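Quick question, first post here. What does this chain look like in 3D?
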Amino acid sequence: MAPEESSAPPSPERAEFLARVAGGLAHEIKNPLSTMAINLALLEEEFLRSAKARDPENAQPNAREQRYLKRVGTLQREVRRLENIVEDFLRYARGGVVNRRPEDFCALIREVLEFVEPEDQSQGIRHHVELPSALPLVRIDAAAMRQVILNLLVNARQAMTGGGELIVRLQREKNYALLTITDTGVGMNEHELAHCFDTYWSTKREGSGLGLATARRIVEEHGGKISVFSEPGRGTSFSIVLPLVVEITGKREDTRSDETREAPRDVEAEPADSPDATAAAGEAKQEDEGRGA
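> Answer (accepted):
Ran it through. Tokens below.
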């Protein structure tokens, strides 16, 4: 009879050991990848230099050089993809350590939106942003939560290859901050929806399958919850619920420890006030464009 597998999480000591092993493994893989990237860049420069030496005024590679440059470009893309996978793996393996402090959640969201907006605009994606003028601080690890938000925004962009609407809304629900990120992209079917948070599961060829798994773990390490609603051909909406630093009166600081703080069970994270992401985008279009990021 085969022994039963334990579903209990590893002890802190074993988790720390696994993180060290993962870090060493990632380091050993990243070194040769970096060497490959450098040599591919030098090879690309060599082909371009040869074309320039042949005709300084019209440095166009010949047919043979163009074929080689195309192959070099393919290898460079694959090296970058492997580097991203290693980084995602290392990020996931390291988990469990968050340095939380009271932060302005609105400012953090605005910062990440400003970072992705130029590329979104170039792909025909329009932002609709609704952030409250006054929200109590949220106790978060800013770097870790920035990673979560960026991952969701990049996923939204990748789901809207032909352009679309991105709706970001932050609001207060009792003692919690509720963030919803909605896109009008391709959406997910029931099977994809059931597995999207699974480790090493992805529908994208270049995906590592760790992005959403890491996002969920980070949110849960903050005492929060992340959920998703999606419909094929209509869009996807992710919701994140995080506890606020202060009580509902806004006067008393929440000094309870992470272990004793009650989980956000009473907050229903509705996807942009409607299960239909396309309808939400239509409403956002009719709103004052001055609120767009």
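The beta strands are 101-103, 125-130, 138-140, 164-173, 176-183, 225-231, 235-243.
The first strand starts at residue 101 and ends at 103.
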